């Protein structure tokens, strides 16, 4: 990660400087955003990789801190290697740790360190000396092993130091990454005997500039959205839609939605997209069914702002389907009689009985789901209701003779692009921790198909394609009428929060993540939260990490985001429990404390760590080291250090985060990605503008050599902003390219 300090001058006014001219040539590191991506995009890897057996001596991890130096003595030169400590070693024992020791070898002689029990972060502070022969041997080898009483010792990695290079420098100290032992002969393995794995890996290296550098681009986009659709001209959003490829349209839609959410203009942006889309020649029955920028943006908007609403509506029904694991099938060609029996009558059920039972179960699931949807109108986020209200009104103005189209326009997004995909693949929407088995997956598929047919508001059309859905027709007809009543309530009431100010809730106050976590408490004073409960409901926003005894009740306390210093994993052996994280923070008295919180699964742990690291990424006093264990008795369980306030033995990982729909808003990152996309579209944007102008009859003459009208002011300003940003990036000091490593 490369901070953007020492940036070139961008020649623009900074909005935070009170209108005064401000250059970006000296940016403090605290204001610099982390490195995310710039113009370098590596091709990465895409293809099938054969799986093979793992050699334990090749699978190593961790680093070791060494100090190697040459000493002058009466008997000649001596080589001293001081082994200080190691961190993040591989776990070889059942207790979730290792018993590491070090073997230092030089010129045919080997010396061993003491064994540090039960630690992946050992501290030795032991020195080993060797006589330096003439001529000196070329290499000093430091190997780390896990000591075992019964079985053979396990190899943890090694470091080879060049003595020739040491003679030139005289002294070398630092952290060295442990390497596998490739000197041992390997047996030829049959490649592909364990199958193959298809991988697609892409490495994107981006650099995000300070906010003031993106202001011209962001302000231009905001002004275009505020201006709305202008008759007789070509809108910048239209040009962006026409020049964006189908492969990148989803990413561009997400970037635009998040950018305008941060600017409080997401409703205006979506309304502009609706108006531009409805201005095109279109039929009522195909409205918003294509993958246009409007469709992709609305779909992304629902995923960014409505995931908690989705979980509340679909969660109980999805959990019921997973728990019951009932056999549901309506297609006669796929019915499996052998899977369902009636032991009481000592006979196998007939095909019609199986299908009737499946119909009843599916109808029960659908009814429960429609009940939840029908009751959810008051709890639907106001910003989503406002967006659907705008869509409902725009479609009504465009097709005044087809009132039915207004309802289908809403369900085309809510049911077809939001509810149904989440029902079919609940794990991708964080509704479940694992994918469904074959039987449950088939039930979810049929339920998603039923919700789609209800959303189409014409169930008979679906029955014509699949005749075996006919028994479900009465339930679908009733569901369509219930969906119509729900949409009427959803779009019929103006929210009090809506006052033309954009998003009703400030983006920084939006909930980033919430859920129940188990609180671990250590002996003595320890890192305790102000509550006697073992399990608390935590809520992370852009302002604080708060906790309460249960959802919806008054919170017991909170930790301000500015006081959080680190969010890291905890060694499994520390509490005898897995999926535990620690949040290091400073309390009101200025004392550093640690909260140990256990998640229900590794996915939940990764999501919490990712969310915490993102919202705290710009804190000025983040820790660079931490203790992966706990302080019990008189020492840390990880490195056995007895100073409770001593420096950490592990390196923090502030920059490692997930990219998911629950990401907090990062306007600078979204602006950088939009710049990266637009940078390669300057000529296509110019060409598309003239094509649309000629198609509209506004210009019939040649476009070259200065003939014809000049480019509109908005395109001129856009190209100037892109050129300024490109100049800033070009003048950045070059960063050393990171190697692309692929491990299977």
Automatic annotation (TrEMBL):
GO terms for molecular function: GTPase activator activity; phospholipid binding; zinc ion binding. Pfam families: BTK (PF00779), C2 (PF00168), PH (PF00169), RasGAP (PF00616). Residues 1-35 are annotated as: Disordered. PROSITE patterns: C2, PH_DOMAIN, RAS_GTPASE_ACTIV_1, RAS_GTPASE_ACTIV_2, ZF_BTK. SUPFAM superfamilies: C2 domain (Calcium/lipid-binding domain, CaLB) (SSF49562), GTPase activation domain, GAP (SSF48350), PH domain-like (SSF50729). Residues 23-35 have a biased composition (Polar residues). Residues 248-456 form the Ras-GAP domain. Residues 510-617 form the PH domain. GO terms for biological process: cellular response to calcium ion; intracellular signal transduction; negative regulation of Ras protein signal transduction. Keywords: GTPase activation, Metal-binding, Repeat, Zinc, Zinc-finger. Residues 60-176 form the C2 domain. It comes from the Eukaryota. This is RAS p21 protein activator 4B. It comes from Gallus gallus.
């Amino acid at each position: 990660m490369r901070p953007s300090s020492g940036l070139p001058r961008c020649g623009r006014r900074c909005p935070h400087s009170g209108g005064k001219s401000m250059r970006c040539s000296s940016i403090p590191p605290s204001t610099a955003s982390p490195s995310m991506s710039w113009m370098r995009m590596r091709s990465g890897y895409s293809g099938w990789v054969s799986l093979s057996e793992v050699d334990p001596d090749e699978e190593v991890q961790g680093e070791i801190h060494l100090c190697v130096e040459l000493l002058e003595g009466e008997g000649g030169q001596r080589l001293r290697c001081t082994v200080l400590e190691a961190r993040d070693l591989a776990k070889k024992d059942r207790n979730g740790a290792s018993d590491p020791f070090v073997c230092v070898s030089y010129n045919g002689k080997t010396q061993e360190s003491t064994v540090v029990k039960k630690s992946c972060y050992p501290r030795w502070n032991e020195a080993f000396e060797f006589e330096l022969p003439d001529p000196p041997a070329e290499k000093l080898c430091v190997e780390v092993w896990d000591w075992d009483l019964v079985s053979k010792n396990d190899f943890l990695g090694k470091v080879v130091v060049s003595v020739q290079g040491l003679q030139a420098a005289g002294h070398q100290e630092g952290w060295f990454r442990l390497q596998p032992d490739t000197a041992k002969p390997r047996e030829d393995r049959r490649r592909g005997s364990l199958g193959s794995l298809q991988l697609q890996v892409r490495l994107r290296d981006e650099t995000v500039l300070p906010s003031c550098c993106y202001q011209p681009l962001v302000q231009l986009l905001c002004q275009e959205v505020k201006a709305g659709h202008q008759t007789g001209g070509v809108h910048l959003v239209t040009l962006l839609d026409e020049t964006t490829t189908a492969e990148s349209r989803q990413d561009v839609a997400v970037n635009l939605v998040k950018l305008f959410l941060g600017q409080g203009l997401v409703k205006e942006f979506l309304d502009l997209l609706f108006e531009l889309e409805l201005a095109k020649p279109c039929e009522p029955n195909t409205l918003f069914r294509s993958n246009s920028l409007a469709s992709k943006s609305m779909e992304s908007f629902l995923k960014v702002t409505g995931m908690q609403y989705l979980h509340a509506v679909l969660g109980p029904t999805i959990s019921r389907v997973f728990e019951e694991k009932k056999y549901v099938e309506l297609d006669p060609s796929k019915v499996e009689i052998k899977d369902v029996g009636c032991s009481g009558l000592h006979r196998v059920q007939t095909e019609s009985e199986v299908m009737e039972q499946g119909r009843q179960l599916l109808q029960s699931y659908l009814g429960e789901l429609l009940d939840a949807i029908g009751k959810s109108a008051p709890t639907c986020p106001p910003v989503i209701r406002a967006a659907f209200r705008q869509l409902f009104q725009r479609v009504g103005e465009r097709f005044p003779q087809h009132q039915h189209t207004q309802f289908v326009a809403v369900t085309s997004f809510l049911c077809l692009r939001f509810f149904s995909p989440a029902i079919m693949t609940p794990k991708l929407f964080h509704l479940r921790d694992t994918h469904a088995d074959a039987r449950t997956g088939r039930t979810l598929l049929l339920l998603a198909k039923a919700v789609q047919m209800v959303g189409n508001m014409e169930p008979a059309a679906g029955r014509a394609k699949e005749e075996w859905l006919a028994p479900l027709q009465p339930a679908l007809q009733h569901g369509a009428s219930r969906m119509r009543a729900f949409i009427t309530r959803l779009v019929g009431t103006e929210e009090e929060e809506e006052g033309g100010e954009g998003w009703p809730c400030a983006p920084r106050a939006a909930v980033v993540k919430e859920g129940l976590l188990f609180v671990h408490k250590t002996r003595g004073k320890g890192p305790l939260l102000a509550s006697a409960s073992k399990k608390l409901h935590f809520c992370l926003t852009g302002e604080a990490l708060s906790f309460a005894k249960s959802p919806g009740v008054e919170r017991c306390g909170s930790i301000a985001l500015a006081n959080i210093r680190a969010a890291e994993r905890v060694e499994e052996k520390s509490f005898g429990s897995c999926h535990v994280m620690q949040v290091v923070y400073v309390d009101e008295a200025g004392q550093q404390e640690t909260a140990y919180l256990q998640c229900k699964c590794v996915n939940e742990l990764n999501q919490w760590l990712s969310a915490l690291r993102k919202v705290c990424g710009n804190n000025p006093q983040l820790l660079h080291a931490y203790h992966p264990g706990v302080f019990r008795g008189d020492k840390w369980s990880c490195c056995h250090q007895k100073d409770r306030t001593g420096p950490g033995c592990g390196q923090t990982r502030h920059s490692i985060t997930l990219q998911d729909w629950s990401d907090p808003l990062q306007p600078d990152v979204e602006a950088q990605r939009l710049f990266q996309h637009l940078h390669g579209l300057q000529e296509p944007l110019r060409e598309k503008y003239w094509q649309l102008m000629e198609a509209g009859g506004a210009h019939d003459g040649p476009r070259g050599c200065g003939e014809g009208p000049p480019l509109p002011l908005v395109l001129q300003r856009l190209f100037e902003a892109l050129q300024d940003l490109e100049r800033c990036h070009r003048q950045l000091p070059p960063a050393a390219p990171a190697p692309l490593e692929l491990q299977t």
